[in-house]
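User: Just a sanity check before I run the rest of the batch. Below are the structure tokens for the first item. I only need the designed sequence back.
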């Protein structure tokens, strides 16, 4: 089955041919760890997790290397460290902020059913030359200066965009156009307004590393050029991220990597997921519609959030709505109950079904530029076949597992989001209190409310228990 992917650089969908089928290599820009990740941040994590699963399915589990970095040096992190830990030395405060936030991020994306990438390098470990000789930022910057692509000015090292004839190809921006438009904002020390920072000086209070250009810290873009080369080599197969990263971040990654290594490409396929809106509006803290993954997980199981994301093709914009989530919850509940009952079928019964590829149409849908909405439609079809008694029932559960929507040893009650669980327990306690004061109208009302949530109440001499309706 041929895998076809849309490449932002060439603006076409084309057949995917890996450089080395024994080691397919993918890099995705990871989080800057200073605050809880929001649901918009979850989109690339889920999208590229699906691609990672698909590549493993096609090329074999041990033949795909997926690198997703952690940006743990950034001025936003410094600001947060000063705000949250005013009494501590800055470096210590920064470590507290980045470690806490990185742990939160890992827990959040695990709850969304994402596999851990093969490697998750931290930027701060790739600033200076390393004992293992893996590519680092200082060496890359020295190489760029030596090859005439970077210069020192105003206490910074800058990339010279005019030194690269096709700078701007990914985003479709031309240097000439930007010259006029950016006239007002030009920094005096830059040769051209699009020249960007590779290295900047740090004040004694700011985090910094000793470099040939004084004590300072790297610009954001150089981090990804260093970490991708460190684990994937100077050219690799797929580079991914959100649409908002095309310019300037990915444009500048390409410029740095190609000019430092003298290569004609950094990655052969550039993939970008679309934007996410909430209830028809841009998500922002000021509008009060800022949804963190953490908050959503208190109301919904992670699989529901994942399913809700996968209903839309990754390149299309998503409108994240309560209505959509409720629909995803209904679908997931039904699928889940069916999957749990299938998991209980004995092996002898299952062995009667012929052995053959179980969900080829789900895979085929994903092979068409990761058409996850089509893949979901194919899962619905497998479910219908199941319900009508034809076909291998494990085709349905295996397809769910493949998409990260079903796990072994899984129980809906255990997996019910903490917030929902607390809500149920509170209602059960209120109902018990209503019964004790013989307010049966109220206790019936609460029972109905719980039933609407899919919860069944059982009263016995020992007390009241509850479970998820099957
Ligand atoms: Zn990046």
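Assistant: Here's the designed sequence for the first item:
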């Amino acid at each position: 089955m041929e895998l076809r992917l849309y490449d932002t650089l060439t603006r076409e969908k084309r057949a995917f041919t890996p450089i080395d089928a024994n080691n397919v290599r993918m890099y995705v820009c990871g989080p800057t760890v200073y605050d809880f990740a929001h649901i918009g941040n979850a989109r690339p994590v889920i999208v590229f997790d699906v691609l990672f699963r698909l590549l493993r399915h096609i090329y074999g589990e041990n033949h795909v290397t997926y690198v997703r970095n952690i940006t743990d040096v950034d001025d936003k992190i410094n600001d947060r460290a000063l705000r949250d830990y005013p009494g501590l030395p800055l470096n210590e405060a920064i470590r507290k902020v980045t470690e806490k936030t990185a742990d939160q991020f890992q827990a959040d994306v695990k709850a969304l059913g994402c596999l851990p990438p093969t490697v998750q390098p931290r930027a701060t470990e790739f600033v200076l030359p390393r004992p293992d000789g893996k590519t680092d930022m200082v060496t890359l910057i020295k190489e760029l200066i030596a090859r005439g692509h970077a210069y020192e000015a105003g206490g910074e090292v800058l990339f010279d965009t005019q030194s690269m004839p096709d700078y701007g190809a990914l985003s479709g921006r031309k240097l000439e156009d930007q010259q006029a438009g950016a006239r007002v904002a030009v920094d005096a020390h830059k040769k051209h307004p699009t020249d960007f920072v590779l290295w900047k000086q740090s004040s004694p209070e700011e985090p910094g590393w000793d470099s040939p250009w004084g004590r300072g810290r790297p610009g954001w873009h150089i981090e990804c050029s260093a970490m991708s080369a460190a684990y994937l080599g100077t050219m690799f197969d797929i580079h991914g991220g959100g649409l908002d990263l095309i310019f300037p971040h990915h444009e500048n990654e390409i410029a740095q990597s190609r000019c430092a290594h003298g290569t004609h490409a950094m990655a052969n396929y550039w993939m970008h997921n679309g934007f996410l809106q909430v209830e028809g509006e841009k998500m922002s803290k000021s509008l009060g519609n800022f949804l963190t993954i953490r908050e959503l997980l208190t109301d919904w199981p992670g699989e529901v959030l994942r399913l809700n994301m996968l209903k839309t093709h990754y390149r299309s914009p998503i409108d994240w709505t309560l209505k959509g989530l409720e629909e995803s919850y209904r679908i997931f509940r039904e699928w889940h109950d069916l999957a749990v009952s299938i998991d209980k079928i004995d092996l002898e019964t299952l062995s009667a079904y012929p052995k053959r590829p179980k969900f080829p149409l789900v895979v085929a849908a994903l092979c068409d530029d990761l058409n996850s909405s089509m893949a979901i439609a194919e899962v619905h079809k497998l479910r219908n076949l199941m319900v009508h008694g034809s076909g291998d029932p494990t085709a349905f559960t295996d397809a769910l597992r493949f998409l990260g929507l079903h796990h072994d040893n899984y129980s809906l009650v255990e997996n019910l989001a903490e917030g929902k669980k607390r809500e149920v327990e509170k209602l059960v306690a209120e109902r018990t209190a209503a019964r004790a004061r013989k307010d049966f109208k109220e206790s019936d009302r609460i029972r109905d409310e719980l039933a609407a949530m899919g919860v069944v109440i059982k009263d016995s001499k020992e007390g009241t228990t509850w479970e998820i309706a099957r």
